[in-house]
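DATA CLASS: polypeptide
GOAL: derive structure tokens

***
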Amino acid sequence: MKYLFTLLAFVVCTVASAQNVEFKSANFKDDKEGFKKAVAEIKLGDELFEVANQAVLDVKSPGTQYAQALTHYMKAQSFNPKNGELNFKIGVCHANSAFRETCISFLYEAHKLNPACNELMEYYYGIALQLDGKYSDAKKAFAKFKAESKLAEDYSKFINKHKNECTDAIKLESTPIRAWVDNASELNSSANEYGPAITTDGGEIILTSDRPNGHSRDLAGEYDDEIYSATLSGGKWSSPKPLKGGVNSDVDDVSSCMSYDGTKMLMHRVVDGQTDIFESTLRGAEWSVPEKMPFQISSKKANEVFAAYSADGWSIYFGRDNATRSNGFEIMYSSMQSKIQKNYMAAQMISTVNSKFNEGPIYITIDGETMYIASQGSGSMGGYDIFISENNNGAWSKPKNLGYPINTPYDDFFFSSTANGKFAYISSNRKGGKGGYDIYKVTFWGEPKEPVTTTEDYLLASIVNPITDNSIESSVTVKKKSFTVFKGKTIDALTKKPVESNIEITDNTTGKIIETFTTNSATGKFIITLASGKNYGIAVKADGYLFHSENFDIPKGSGDNLVNKVIELKNIKIGSKIALRNVFFDTGKSILRKESNTELDRLVKLMKDIPGLEVELSGHTDNTGSALLNEGLSQDRAAAVVTYLKSKGIAANRMTAKGYGSSRPIASNGSASGRQENRRTEFEITGN
């Protein structure tokens, strides 16, 4: 009997707990004051809730309306947690927030308590099922909403969208692409982290977070967005720190994109209720106060978000909302007529990449061939998904879904890639995160290989998504890029302190200057990405120092290359010497090749800029062959350089030529690389 009583009591309690408790005074006779306060909170929440619902229906941002409504609803929820409609409204607020996973339990509870509590119940119940990965059940809920709800016609395009998302999700999850997606836990907190922008070598990252800061909370109890940075060391990210300088303010500051050399950043900021795009520049150790972009980009009649640099630096891509259309944010671009004057043309829409729903953050690869777009549009698994569009002769193709596990039923956006395309970082509020939006690292595997043994699958297992079938076909092809990242810093050779320097990158074959830039004044650091299949000359110049040159060849098709160089600059004083690494001769000959002209012309300029400079031009060889022949060859090569300089107007009495043969090695002749170092042309300052 005791067991039976206990069982019956359990059953009775279970049924009672599933009963819907209406907000009626008769149900709360013992706490009339608490009832009045709860009803008042619901009324306040409803005013905000309805405004937010209309914004979503119009494909507009609900702003903080849902978040503010939630603060009122949760006070009423603490008084009566068993009301179906209140649970529904709380679920809707969460479904339209960064913390979307939280909506599932509330919407499930609402559906259990009172499935008829609201005309939108079945619609949002379908969304909860979709987020929970129950795609077939979600499609049934959407179909029921369409058949029975009076609001079905108003939500028709959303119903079709969600049903298609469920169909696409089933297909995409059954054919995952070859990639790992892992939480970059060091960067994340219980707050939101998004807007990742990484340098081309993957060593530094900028991100946005609304984690607690020194500012006041807003009406929804949230902190404003600020921009942070972190550095990768030993395979782990440092703890994010607020950017130094004038970037962060007491309003929302959101990072969008860094320039490929890491010296500029596009961001957006809310000012006087309007969102505009700004640009900040890294000057020394600090980022400058952001400057609002010209009106062609940051207009007065619309909101602009999520900007990105084009590969050639001439254009800015961004999202703009359009008051005359119910498509939310659409992707636009504006191009400069002149980089010197920075005058932009009127913004143009890219019709091929826009959908009937919101488009989100944009990223364009360094070769300009691929655009990664976040979109809520056709082909999404739910929320924002990341899509790929290819540049075909200047026209962008219709975007294709990047695929699972990069995309999920949740919001997946903000793609930022390393130069070679092997790694990328995204933001997502998928299940299993630390809170709201988190930063995730994506590792692309590349093309599949023939399995050697049946255990190969285990070797490819991801800590997030173990793979058991390596014959899966990809929905899209992610192309690896063939680039070399040339990074480093310029320092004083004697003091080892950073030196702000000007660097020129030259294609030695054509003599054309590809890029010019200045190293960081506080750190001396620089970073640039170079295409394969070329021989490059790098010239480094700084006031009061001898210029420095480097030469290296990047074979066509090479990838995953990183050149990390500390360049030590020498003061212009008697005794300083430098090797001319971009002066070339054919083997065994002393005739200058035309590829040498760029390097020697820099020396000509130095001699003309400093009229009192006197130098010795010296030739050096390795120890291969006859010492006598080597000495003669080195003398002839030094004389050839002097002859060239004389032809450019440098007085003969300022120069001497000397061949040292193999008598002054700077590296071991025991290796091919050492012998190459020893074969050089140098100049030494003998008078100034």
Remarks:
- The chain has four domains: 2-174, 187-439, 482-570, 572-688.
- Residues 572-688 form a domain with the 60s Ribosomal Protein L30; Chain: A; fold (CATH 3.30.1330.60).
- The radius of gyration is 32 Å.
- The chain has twelve helices and 35 strands.
